[in-house]
Each structure stands twice: as C-alpha cells, then as structure tokens.
Design goal:
Layout (H helix, E strand, L loop, with lengths): L1 H18 L1 H11 L7 H20 L3 H32 L1 H4 L2
Helix pairs in contact: 1-4, 2-4, 3-4
C-alpha cells in the first residue's frame, strides 16, 4: 500500500514538474520579452534534468526517464525562448550593429 502511494505521488511530482513550465511558456509567447527571467537559471534546470535522465537510464527507471524527458522539453523550450528574446537583436543584426 505504501509503495502504491509512493508511486502515485512520484508520478504526480513528475507531472507537476512538467506542467510548471507551461505558464512560463505562455507568458513568453504573449509578452515577447524575457527581461525578468534568468537564462543561467533555466540552463541550470535543464542540466539538472539531463543528469536525472542519465541517472534514470543507469538505474533502469523508465518512469523517471520519461517524466524528466517531458520536463526537459518544457524547460528547454523556456530556455530557448529566453535566449531568443534576450538576444534577438544580436541574432537579427549581428553583434557589430549593437555596438554602433
């Protein structure tokens, strides 16, 4: 019984970990800017999730791996949008035009 409760809570945690990126994605799409978000923080989150995926692979824990793959997709999407919105002028016009 305790194992079943633990598995259920673990699954819910994985689901919530993935779902929590969605509001951030929506805000980024709506606002088209990332001025109050830390790129370094989200890169760190992505790395942590990647390490957890590797651990899950090593431990043969498919639930952990699948849950964190979805979480990594959400977090990586936020990370990419933050990078794009913070550096879009450099991306569009090149670094030299920013210094003029």
């Amino acid at each position: 019984m305790l194992q079943m409760i633990s598995n259920y809570l673990f699954g819910m945690g994985l689901f919530l970990n993935t779902v929590l990126a969605i509001p951030q994605l929506i805000l980024l799409f709506k606002r088209k800017r990332a001025d109050n978000l830390s790129l370094l923080t989200f890169v760190g989150f992505c790395l942590i999730q990647l390490f957890i995926i590797f651990h899950g692979l090593y431990a043969h824990d498919s639930m952990l791996v699948i849950g964190y793959i979805f979480s990594l997709i959400g977090c990586a999407s936020v990370t990419i949008l933050i990078a794009y919105y913070k550096y879009r002028e450099i991306i569009r016009h090149g670094y030299r035009n920013q210094n003029q």
